[in-house]
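Aim 2 progress update. The chain analyzed this quarter is reproduced below.
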Amino acid sequence: MEKTEHKKIFESGLSFKELLSAIFYYSGNIRNNKRTLIFVDEIQNSAAAVGYLRYFHEDAPEIHL
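Predicted structure tokens:
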């Protein structure tokens, strides 16, 4: 995460559902139930972002990170 605004999304304390909504909103995309791939470059720069990884696996298996 090289851009500060991207890092802020993960570090703002949002619930996982709110985080997903924010990711799609800021990327200008609409979430659907199809398989989706999200790239998070330099994820190791945000401990909060790393902490959300398990929720992607458990709560949103259609989204690949």
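The mean pLDDT is 90. The helical segments are 4-10, 16-27, 47-59. These observations will guide the mutagenesis experiments scheduled for the next reporting period.
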